[in-house]
Amino acid sequence: MLRRCFRSGRGGSGAAGAAPVGERRRSSSPGVQGGGADPLRRGRGVCMMSNSWRDKQHPNLINFLATFLAANSYRLNFLSVSPDFIFNNGGTSVAFVFETNWDSEKEAAVFSRVNTLKRQFKHLYVAVVLPTGEQIDSFNKSYFKYGMELGCPTFVPVCDPEMGFEKIVRIAHARGVCKKQDIITTMRDERAQAVECMDAFLRVLTSIPACPSYWLH
C-alpha cells in the first residue's frame, strides 16, 4: 500500500490551476502502510521527472509530488527525458505522459506525442486530468478521432493532478512487484498449461467412437 501525504497550503495545482475535485472526497490524513512488511518499501526505485514538464507546473504540485515520492521511498531525479516520467522499479522501466490540463486545441500534439512514445517504450501509460464533463467529452471525441487502440497505451482519466500522480505511482509499483515476483511469467505458464489440458481433453473426446460434434462445445 502506498502512503499519502498532507495537502495543506496549496495555492494551485496544475499549469492552469485545475480544480481539485478529488480532494473534496479524500481525507487530509496520510495513508498507512498495510499490515505486513512491504518487501519493496525500503528503496522502491527511482522516479525520473522531465525538466520541461516540471517547468510547466505549479510549484505546489511539484512539492506535493516530491513529498509523495519521498514518503513512498522513491528517489526523484530531474532529467531531460522524452516522457514526462520514467519509473525504474523492481528491474522494470515504466514511462508516463501526464497531462495536467486538457486543452482541446492541443489534442493533435498530445496524441502525436503518445504515438511516438509508445513505439519507444514497452510500458507506457497516459494520465489525463479531466475535472469537468466538457473536458471528458472533448477527450473522448479526440481519443477516437485520432484512432487510439484500446489499451495501447492505457489512458488513465483522473479528477485532479494529485489523484493522477497517485495512480501513476501505484501503476509503477504494481509493475515492479510483478517483475520482482515474476507474476506475469507465472500467469503465462498457467495459461499455457490450461490450454494444453484442454487440448488433451478434446483429443480424448474425439477418440470416442460416434462422439457427437456438439460435445466439443
* H/E topology pattern: EHHEEEHEHEHH
Task: Give the biggest beta sheet.
Answer: 6 strands, mixed
Number of separate structural domains: 2
**What is the CATH class name of the largest domain?**
Alpha Beta
Output the strand order for the largest sheet: 2-1-3-4-5-6
Count of strand segments: 6
Task: Output the CATH topology of the largest domain.
Answer: Rossmann fold
What does this structure look like?
The protein has 217 residues and is of the alpha/beta class. It has helices spanning 51-55, 59-71, 107-118, 133-145, 161-181, 183-206; strands at residues 45-50, 74-79, 85-89, 92-99, 124-129, 154-158. It folds into two domains: 21-31 and 40-181, Rossmann fold (3-Layer(aba) Sandwich); 182-217. It is built from six helices and six strands, in the order E-H-H-E-E-E-H-E-H-E-H-H. Strands 2-1-3-4-5-6 form a six-stranded mixed beta sheet, sandwiched between helices. It starts with 44 loop residues before the first strand and ends in an 11-residue tail after the last helix. Residues 1-43 are annotated as: Disordered. InterPro entries: PTD (IPR039172). One of its GO terms (biological process) is resolution of meiotic recombination intermediates.
